[in-house]
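for the writeup, i need someone to sanity check this before i put it in the appendix. the sequnce is what the collaborator sent (i think, or maybe the updated version? ugh). structure was predicted straight from it, no edits. if anything looks off just tell me and ill rerun, i have time this weekend
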Amino acid sequence: MYYSSGTGKNCALTYGDGPYANTTSWKGVVISRGDGSGKDSDAGNYQYYAGPVYVSAAGQCIDVEGISPSWTSVKLDNVHCG
């Protein structure tokens, strides 16, 4: 996850890791405001990463989820509040 104070947008990517690093495989990423609005997602067969996806959330928290090729999902709710 990244935040640009210049644009006021949060950004997220999902990289492959382990045996999936730098290989073409399925990867996914989802980002939204903490209330679920403004959702942006990307998924598909990519060599390096899925995304970037963006959401404007000045003064709010965001939710972000990354799904790796092994179908491992990491979801962070109400992060990067500000």
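The radius of gyration is 13 Å. DSSP finds no helices and seven strands in the chain.
thx in advance!!
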